[in-house]
Amino acid sequence: MKQVLFITAIAMIANVQASVKVVYGEDNRVDVFESTNSMYVELAKSTAAMMRYSALKEDENGDYTVTSKSLESRGMCSTERFVHQLSAASCSGFLVSETLLVTAGHCVTTEDSCKASTWAFDYKVENDTQVDITIPKNSVYKCKRLVSRELNKKNKDDWALIELDRPVTDRRPLEIRKSGKIKKGDNLVVIGHPSGLPSKIADGAQVRKLKEKYFVANLDTYAGNSGSAVFNADTGLVEGILVRGDKDYKYKYLKMCRVTNVNDDHKGRGEDVTFIGNIPELR
Asked: Global pTM?
């Protein structure tokens, strides 16, 4: 998998090797509070960030303050969007039952790495200038066990199913596609943690190609989005799991920092999304 220096740093946080992604056409990422689509906002509640436990500092109330570098301090140019926000997540995931969470197979490689991971819902900002983030104690979970996983170099299948340490009762599991398949040209939205940032919603994407185990789309995603839920933008059903893509950032040698790699909506390699129906336990 391709990587840039920033992505390598993020991967080291959780001992994973995350795939890199890119923006296609207009950058459609918005913070959850900015979204005007009530369905997307509701879906975002059931998406989670994978973090090191050491990135969460418990306060006097038992809640957690996120401690991490900003995107700018990780080498991004000051002109980048969200550059002042914290970059604490190494992967993304989403809830499919009270106790089960889905992510990418390359995010959780072993039972031990699964049990070392922390999953935080509600890692988001509430306004444009917010820097410090506190996550309620009851929004933070550990991995109880790695239920099943696939990372196949030949057919590119890439997914993991995790059992959390306790039931999630304050938000609804996401609905997934149980029959049929998405079609070329269908509208998509992805919700996750690009470059480790607080939760972002990115719509305005479409399916480009259909493969055996995955489909290709022009989603605006980055490393940290690996494991994100990719939804049918019209129905809200989970269609798949974001797993791979084009190069995130380009280095500007005169500025000695990185800027987003931008492709035309119909150009670039596209972003790969594992079909949610590939997971046997969810069929």
From this structure: 0.89
